[in-house]
Amino acid sequence: MVEIGPYVHRYVEETKAALSDPALGEGIAKVLAVLLEARAHDRTIYFFGNGGSASTASHFVVDIGKATIRGDGRRFRCVALVDNVESVTAWANDAEYASVFSEQLATLARAGDVAWGISGSGNSPNVLKAMEVAKRLGLRTIGLTGMGGGRLKEMVEIPIVVASRSMQHIEDVHLLLGHLLTAYLRDEAPAPPR
User: Fold this and answer.
1) Beta bridge partners of 160
2) What is the pLDDT of residues 115-162, one digit of tens each?
3) What residue spans of the chain are helical by DSSP H?
């Protein structure tokens, strides 16, 4: 039998250390304000990322779009740009992979909507290009990242940077923050008007 106990303990402690950064709470508070404003004004929140961050983007859409419904009040309008496989592959094939999110935003987004990019490194070219388009179109911008924030940290209105250089811990914290936001929006945030 493999003795995994010490490794499990170390992994959990490293994840807890990444979660203990007070900047996470400050960033989440700013994000909550943007999300509540988006819901109040019927704006769309666009989530996107690559690899594990792509699945996090889809996960956020399900949780924030569905698990926060309260009565018959206003809902969050959420779209995961990673889920439109036909558009992603068409833009990747016909233009370049760096355009797969920016071109969708150019078609769908309106001023006042929200672009939420997720990149563990903060340097994913397609996330950065999408943020350039989002800013040009007048969208609010949120970046969820790690490893010091990369270029994404400097491009967005609200950067949330996980204080870790381990992609596994960064992605763990990203998912936990999504669940925290969802739970708060469901349980604590003011109920939306009917």
Assistant:
1) 144
2) 999 999 999 999 999 999 999 999 999 999 999 999 999 999 999 999
3) 5-19, 22-40, 52-66, 85-94, 102-108, 125-137, 150-155, 167-187
- What one-character-per-residue DSSP string does 15-32 give? HHHHHT-HHHHHHHHHHH
For residue 194, which amino acid is it?
A: R
What the block records as the tokens of 128 is 């950065």
Residue 190 has pLDDT above 80, yes or no: no
Could you give the strand order of the β-sheet that contains 158-161, starting from the edge strand earlier in sequence? 77-80, 44-49, 114-119, 140-145, 158-161
Weakest mean pLDDT among 3-7, 56-60, 153-157: 3-7
Q: Write down the pTM of the prediction.
A: 0.94
Query: Residues near 32 by Cβ (< 8 Å), separated by ≥ 6?
Result: 181, 184, 185, 189
Residue 193's pLDDT band, with cuts at 50, 70 and 90, is: low
Task: Please give the angle made by the CA atoms of 71, 142 and 114, to the nearest 5 degrees.
Answer: 55
CATH of region 28-187: 3.40.50.10490
- 118 DSSP assignment: E
On the question of pLDDT at 24 being above 70, the answer is yes
Report the alpha-carbon distance of residue 30 to residue 101 in Å, rounded. Answer: 24
Backbone phi, psi, residue 56, to 5°: -65, -40
DSSP 73: S
Residue 136, amino acid:
R
